[in-house]
Structures
1.
Amino acid sequence: MAKHVVAAVGEIPPGTRKLAQVNGRAIVVFNLGGEFFALNNRCPHRGGSLHHGSQTGLVESDGPGRYCYSRPGEIIRCPWHGWEFDIRTGQSWCDPSRVRARRYAVSVERGGGLVAGPYVAETVPVTVENDYVVVDA
Amino acid sequence: MNIEVRQPERGAKARVKIFDCDIHPKSALEDLRPYLSNRWWSYLQTYGQRQRHGYVKGFPYPKSQPLASRRDSWPPGGGLPASDLDFMREQHLDLYGIEYGIMNPLSPTGQGEQNDELSAALAFAANEDQLARWNAREPRLKASVVIPYENGELAVQEIRRRAGDRRFAHVLFLSRTSELLGKRRYWPIFEAAVEAGLPVGVHVFGSSGRPMSNSGWPSFYIEEITEHSASLQASVASLIVEGAFERYPELKIVLIEAGFAWLPSLGWRLDQNWKRMKDEVPHLRRAPSEYLREHFWVSTQPMEEAEDPDHVIDVMQWIGWDRILFASDYPHWDFDDPFLALPPSLSEERRGKIYSGNAKALYRFE
């Protein structure tokens, strides 16, 4: 595992996401209300690109006729077969015991702290004045 | 922002030849305009189409993704999914190394249209459109003979018009016909297909005007999509029991997008009852399951996903390794990725047959 700069913080505003290439892997980075999360872009069910999916909420029910909709925007729904994954954990809501979208650690780091390391800027020019989203992958 | 990521292994796997038996090119009604007479164009502007269900301009059931399509299939240059040949090449035909694909256009095609003459005019136009806008530019894509299947006489005219034209792969029905498919009103169509040397593809969907169940309309899309196979079972039984294969021994039926794990149980039950009621259907000279295995082919998508993959293998074994055809259903949301759809334990030989060999033999494309 190594740290990779994938974006400047301002590039992924809350509620949006960005697809990044890290060492040949496609990783989709989400901003949920200022917190960043990263999942492997490849849906573990049949390989759809999660980045092209829709962000939705969690619908739960404890019985017919009773519904609870929570956590708006925190679930990514695959653009192909509609499998849903918890953006925070990668957990599948379709088959939680067997399937999980691969999750990567994300941090926000000051540009000044990054220049010394062997970091790879995949998509943005690195300047030291800003905060950057860093994926550990 | 939208970086299309190619998996490194795709290049290598793309050397596997793939015959995709279910691709849905999308045309707008305006694309059919050159092949419609002024009479029908004017009629469409004034009166429009009338499917055999309410809400003519929409689906009887809303789909789980917009236009029932993969969300990543909307062409970057605009237009509807699978309406842009260049993007279809990039996202599907070239990416997966598709050697041949069969186009099964779903709308606008006039299939199931209440006005028979309009149905025939639209079917003709849909066939011309498949040739001109798709096959002529991309010969890997073979056309379906779209027919106004609720009117045997007009459907036969369209099949005869296309007979001998190798750009067409099969005659296309949708599964929700207004009567069960084995009824004699459809026999002239089977006869014309056999004469033309074409298999008959039956793709799920269509609008019979009747609900999927005999207890009315189900509440949820999940019921509708699951029950396509149940509704098709009745038509498969009808084709067998009415004697269509006794009358047309060369008739070949391809079941498209219907699943296939239900075929063995249907065969077992038909055989059991046939042994008890042979005198009700004396025109059947063999057990129903024998017709099932001899006259039917199935497409893979949506691939059966059993908890134990060996159960799927058992079902495939029953159906026959030479009867199963790979299909992706591009661009629809329940698309099967060619490289991931088949059970991993299949031998190379069986994989090769399903990916391409069986379809080449059936459709006679080499």
2.
Amino acid sequence: MMFTIIVFLSVIGVVAGLAFHRFWTTREETGATVLYAELFKKYAVWIALGARRSIRKASPKNWWQYIKALPLWHLPVLEKWLSIGFYGSFAYLAASGFLFAIFVPRGLYGFPLVGHVMAGGLFAACLAIIVIFKGRDFISVPKPVNLSLALLDPRKMGITAARVKLAAFWLFVLAGFLLALTALLPMMPLLRTAGQKFMFEFHRYSALASLVAAMVFVGLELFESDRP
Amino acid sequence: MSRAGRYALGALGLALAVLSLATAGSAASAVQDAKHTVWDGNRTTPAHLIPLRDENDEPIIPTETDPLPYSARFTCGPCHDYRTIQGGWHFGAMTATKSGRPGEPWIRLDPKTGTILPISYRKWPGTFEPGALGLTAWDFTALFGRHLPGGGPAEPSDEEVLAYPEARWNVSGRAEVNCLACHNRSGRQDPSEWAKQVLRENLRWAATAAGGVGEVGGIASRLKETWDVYDGPNLDDHEWAVVPFVKYRTSDFDSKHRYFFDLNYQPSDDRCLACHSVSPAGEAQWSAEADVHSTSGLKCADCHRNDLGHGIVRGYEGEAAETGNRTAGSFTCRGCHLGENEAGEKSVVPGRLGAPYPKHTGLPLVHFKRLACTVCHSGPKPKEGFTRVRTSRANRLGIYGVATWATDLPAVIEPVYAKDAGHKISPHRLVWPAFWAKMSGKEAVPLKPEDVEAAAGGIFKPEERIAQTLIALSQVMAEDEVPVLIAGKFVFAPNVDAGIDSAERPAAKADTPAFWGIRKGADVLPLVPEFDPAAADKDPAIEARFMEFLQALGTVAGAPGRPVIAVKKTLYQLVDGSLDMSEAPAELAESSGPGWLAEGKFLPLASDFDLRTVTAKAGTEQTLTEEQVALVLGALANLGKGSDFAYISGGRMFRLGKDGRLAAKSDAAAKPVTWPLAHNVRPAQQSLGWNGCTDCHSGGSDFFFTRLRGTGPLLTANVEKRSAASFMGLGGLFQRFFGLSFITRPLFKVVLAVCAFVIGSLVFVAGLLLLGRLAGFLEKRPEP
């Protein structure tokens, strides 16, 4: 139950946060708004209108068009299949894992579980390759920091969308590592029941961390690509 | 003082006196109750040198004439409240409101009619309530008293006794709760003696005899129904209808007529196993394994405890909530070994009796959610075709004597993994029911075997008829001769139980014509040898022998005609006690050998139906053929006009079709009855999973994929077939696929490990890089 609540809060928080980032960055009226209540009201109206517009536009045909238009299909062959394997396996893992964890009291079982295990292997392999060949694109070069009270001031920490995206990438990789580890260790004759329980919980929360990181990364990526 | 005042004072004094007496009485009663129920803390069992009392609460003087048997109610009752004990698990089935997890039902077995009926007063799923089958407490006691510890149906209420006057409680007495059945430490305690006394209807004497307290003679079942225990011995009959009597073992009495009971507070395992033994069928005693708890020195009663109420802790999860006995929670597998209740809370006393804490290293959590502990740890390991076992109560084990009591039927199968009431998979024992039924709509209502037998006439009796003939012939055989019937590939000979035994003739063909013979050593000679009756030099001994045979066959009860022997065109028969040799009528000219002459027709000693039936069943444990079932269903239909009848066996329901043929189908009434098993618990190294996941998860594991064929008294190929996975409610296809996935699992683990290593290393390096940058270690620095 606790996990379900945390999942819902996390997902809602990330979606709201990303939407607010878009609202804050794109709407001119936000600069003139001083009161938080006024700002929240405008944000709520904006998000409601946006949601209604999105729902109206959503149809299988439009989704298909959207998928066909993804740049993924135009990548070189190895990269294309790597991306398909990576995105596909992650999508299945997240869908099967969270849907069963939240909506099915028995949890993940049967063929979906076998699929989950197989997709997990594919995901780990793809992630390892991506980190080897693409990880270098996500290494930032921060300036050396100096010891001062300014370190504690969020406004002076230099938090930008680009840096959040980088952090999301590495959080995703870290969560991927923990997911692989927490899937592997219970299969080995190492852990007793308490260890198994711990690994099970750790696997779930690692999955939640990877989902949140992926949402942040993709949300920021899509926002960037939408901007003129 | 005025008169009124004196009266008032007197009345007050009287009231006070009454009040003080009442208070003193209740205080004394409370003290006595406390004596009965509260343990003083001493851990020894007191010596039970106590006066015996009979069922009239009179003291027993062992040397007096015709003493009555001792009564537990009045001998043990003064210190151990009898009424409290009467409600215990072993005695309270008839009145229990809660019966908890299903246990082993009583199984009514009648091989002749092919009846295997699971019966229980406890209304467990798949069982029939005795009353619904027309069984009174008397019938129940007669059928199952052999393994009852007294009390319950063997000690019915006065209302029950009055309601069924045809029962013989007045003669037999009631079998009170037999305390000695469990608590007697003496090696004289004899369950076989108990069974013998119950069979003789010596119910009130059974505990005295079985406990070795005295020697009991006489047979109540031979007494008239009007006999009463106060009538005393039957002076006119010292041979047959002898009234039951007791000769007490006087050496165990002291001079004050007190008897020494050698008792245990906790019953020894032998006492429990007398009624609760389970062993693989056909296994040698020396190779049979015991429960790991027993071999570790624990007694059954160490875990299966009880207070004076005798509500034995059964030790299953959920029992504490069902019975309100919170202590029960710490005597489950989980309670003792993990210190957890069924919800997984650490709320019970762990490690009782030194229970080790299991490691369960590498065992995925789902196993704890979906499986009972007993799946991996109890019963025989799964194997192809399951394991057939025999249980004390179902197969009448543990009763020893000249006659063989133990039976192979019913076939009890284990371990069948099925979901229990808590939706956990647990190992079960299974029995396929078999019975004749009258259809009431879609419901099959069992018929009493006696009623079916009466309706069937001689259809069930081919073996009996052949046995009667062979036994009759054996009267005139020499010591080294045995009369036999040879039919098909089998030789049939009479046995001591007045039945027939069959033995296969290895070289014989199935279509060998039947003939009657005499076995002498290894040779079998024809009963009627080849000779010419008209020859002048014929052996006169042959005709003398014929006369003996005919005399013997004349004693066969219910024979269809007069015995005759046909040899070529000559017919031998007894006329006025002499052998008469006459020319056979023309229509008998083709006949030869012994037979019956009925209305001028020659009938063979055994009819084609009898021969067909016994040869079909020879060498099998089945007791009915499809032909017999069809005939009996026809006979039942003729008797109960307009009613529809069925026979259930092997998981199928058989009914007569409109064309008169037997048709089979699946039906809810034919479903097997199952009950969870808990013992024997195997050592950890023999548990499932010790050798890895593939103990169960492989493409063809016996755990999931062994197939169970319905078994029953009917000889037929038309039986229910089910896979082990189907009992678990699991898809066989998925389990096969999942099992096969374990072939690639080692490779999968390697791939996952390599990926995790690569990803982890790079994350670590990236983290180091970030730290180095932030700290300025990795900045280009000007040369000093």
3.
Amino acid sequence: MDAVDFETKSDVLDLVQLPESSIDEEEIALETKNLSLWYGDLKVLHNISLKVVKNAVTALIGPSGSGKSTLIRCFNRMNDLINNVRIEGTVLLDGKDITAPDVDVTQLRRQVGMMFQKPNPFPKSIQDNITYGPRVHGFNGNLYDEIVEKNLRRAALWEEVHERLEDNALDLSIGQQQRLCLARTLAVNPEIILMDEPCSALDPISTAKIEDLIHELKENYTVIIVTHNMQQAARVADYTAFMCLGELVEFGATLQVFEAPKNSQTEDYVCGRFG
Amino acid sequence: MPPLSANKYVQKIFFTLTGIAVVIIMGALFFLLGLIFIRGAPVINLEFLTQAPRRGMTEGGIMPAILGTLVLVAFAVAFAFPVGLFGAIYLVEYAKEGRITRIINEAIENLNAVPSIVFGLFGLAFFVTFLGFGRSILSASLTLAMMILPTVMVTSVEALKAIPQSFREGSLALGASKWRTIQDVVLPEAFAGVLTGVILAIGRVAGETAPILFTGVVYYKYALPSSPFDQTMALTYHLFVLATESPDIAKTRPIQYGTALVLVGLVLLVDATAIYIRRNILSKRRW
């Protein structure tokens, strides 16, 4: 290897031990094929083809307005709430196209849970927040106490709130509220958890707690996280997709996207030159 | 200096004018309420509130009229509340913003602007004659219900719109259906606003005469109504009859003031309840 010529950047990069982009060998939880989306006449997503690896964390990064949130809202059909949305292409979950009109969205959303930018617990008690989902899906046993404890523990919130489960969820701190929203999402046993900038309203300590949780979550769940924060993507994600102006510019293992981006636009973004 | 003092002068004039306006408003209100109270209070006693009128309505009490007004209002709310609330839910939660919602909104506004006597005539033509309910509590309260429908609906719409979208998203994202979301997350939070609308409507409808004039009230009825198809006395109409058509108007004057006081007191009580409940619920609200 002595003879390596360091003149060009690509030669340097060849030396870095990059994990082979082996997405195709992994088990896929969700896949989009040529997904395009319009709000009225405005095309917001352009032919997105993306594979989300099972039991891994996939981050969507990119500047504001790049379509990250719109994309993950295709995965649980939350775009249905908006008028004049048109979709082309497919989103496959368990081999089934979930953009089809006959899909039962309530069942889909149980499978694909979501956390929002601003914590949005219901103005109900802490325990009612957790049991709401199971109740909605027809769980009627007397295991509610168990469900509450199990899911609060999973969200690392149990120790802080177990003595005040009857209290209104909105009395919690913002960071606790966001973990409660996670617990609430976990209570319906989803397979995939969508996180739409879950830490953007949180302080650094609460953010760290959520990031720790994300690491633990991937053992049992597939996580897709939208973030503005590139350090966050680098810290939590196994795979990273860089989006810009509604296009998927680059997608690969996080290390590769950050250390050796193939696209110059990606490089500019991850180096902080724009965005 | 001169322009400054001229400014000051103008300012003073307008301050004075605004002050006078306030004095006129408050003065009119206090004069009206004061007069009714001073002239009406002496006749109010247990007998007045619990007995039927006697001797050509120159003696006795106004109990059948109080009861009649309460019954009419209760029926009117029972009809208008579900329709108004469901209409509001449709408008806010289901209808897509556009031509249809605009037409509905305009229709409600226009309904609200229809003079009450027109509602009365409509009630006579539609409920009394066409549907064959006759002159009855049913016809009268349905007519009142038509009148308060816009109030109930508009306040319900406002109450529903005040619920943050993020609550709905949270529920839908867990896989709750739209109706489940409305029922479990939206309506409990919108309750204070809806209730306020209903109570304000009660306050308004209790004081109406024209809509019930042709549709179900009588100036005197010995027996209390026993079915929705009976006619009834009502405070407003009782007052009207006492003041214009009773055999001895001068002799009934104290009773007129007493009746007016009871009516005003009832409406103020209802409105105060609305304010109290609203404040109570809003103070517990954390969003």
